[in-house]
Design brief:
Layout (H helix, E strand, L loop, with lengths): L2 H14 L1 H11 L9 H13 L4 H16 L5 H14 L14 E6 L6 H13 L5 E6 L4 H14 L2 E3 L7 H14 L4 E6 L7 H17 L5 E8 L4 H13 L4 E5 L9 H9 L3 E5 L7 E3 L2 H8 L4
Helix pairs in contact: 1-12, 2-3, 3-4, 4-5, 6-7, 8-9, 10-11
Length: about 300
């Protein structure tokens, strides 16, 4: 990413993380103006918990910061830089979408209300703007509204939409979309799936069926299974990620609604505890409000340099 592009991304992520950053700032106000004492570590702990980093990762972060301070860090600016390094260390290295060689498959999964259909539509716009020919599969056949919503996104993106009637077999939709991808020589198939509770075994089985259909028709294609998580749900998103990682073969996370959440710290827990990279972040409802995730920009936005 060039300097101008990274600056633009930093600005959008910074704005999206405004509430999370404020939750941290409320606890760390004036904390970096004097050498660290026990009260300082308590404030760091409270700040991370307030942003929904989670108990386990917070404890590990505070202990690592204590270790560095015991090793000789005293100046406030050094301690601040050390905390930034600790947070950055929890995030996997950035991993772009694997879309080459075409055709590629992107399966969009998650629970109801996480923003899956919007994410699928924005992804189609994102890829279309970069010259990719996209086929959208409306495999959320349980909600007529989802099919209609994806049709609107398909028109915006200039993508071909494959849809069946409400209540149809989602695997049949994906089957037809895969065939359309091959016959039209499309670059990417983006499949929007029905929202499902990660605790419902029958719905998870249906997701596995969709994966089998795609594996049979597009056996050697690059594959992404993107788990869309609602940033406003905080630690519940971490539990969802654990379940979907197995059932959906999740290759990465899309964090949606980052612009409305004070719980963006869950990104650190997902990255550190599950090893799942956050590949994209949603910071709004517009077609352009979907960005590749940059760990450096995220930490800059979460805990700016003094």
């Amino acid at each position: 990413m060039d300097v101008a592009g990274r600056a633009g991304l930093w600005g959008r992520i910074r704005e999206g993380l405004r509430r999370t950053r404020q939750a941290i700032a409320d606890h760390l106000q004036d904390a970096f103006t004097r050498p660290p004492d026990e009260g300082f570590f308590q404030r760091v702990e409270e700040a991370l918990l307030a942003s929904d980093v989670g108990v386990e990762v917070t404890a590990e972060a505070v202990e690592e910061l204590r270790r560095r301070v015991r090793a000789g860090l005293r100046r406030p600016e050094e301690v601040r830089a050390a905390l930034r390094q600790v947070l950055r260390g929890f995030l996997p290295e950035p991993q772009p979408l694997q879309l080459e060689p075409p055709p590629a498959v992107v399966l969009v999964v998650g629970v109801n209300g996480s923003g899956k259909t919007t994410t699928a539509g924005k992804l189609a716009c994102h890829l279309g703007a970069r010259g990719k020919r996209v086929v959208l599969a409306a495999a959320d056949t349980f909600r007529a509204a989802a099919i209609d919503q994806l049709e609107v996104w398909a028109r915006r993106a200039g993508a071909e939409l494959v849809r069946h009637r409400e209540g149809s077999d989602p695997a049949a939709v994906v089957h037809d979309a895969a065939q359309a991808t091959l016959s039209r020589h499309a670059d990417v198939l983006v499949a929007d799936t029905a929202g499902r509770l990660h605790t419902k075994a029958n719905l998870m089985d249906e997701l596995r069926k969709i994966r089998r259909v795609l594996a049979r028709l597009l056996p050697d294609c690059p594959w992404e299974s993107l788990l869309v998580l609602d940033a406003t749900t905080g630690q519940n998103a971490l539990q969802q990620a654990r379940q979907f990682r197995e059932a959906a073969g999740a290759t990465g996370v899309v964090l949606s609604k980052l612009d409305t959440s004070a719980k963006g710290g869950v990104v650190l827990a997902i990255g550190h505890q599950l090893g799942l990279p956050v590949k994209l972040v949603g910071t709004g409802e517009g077609p352009d409000d979907l960005e590749a995730f940059d760990p450096e920009a995220f930490v800059d936005a979460l805990l700016p340099e003094a």
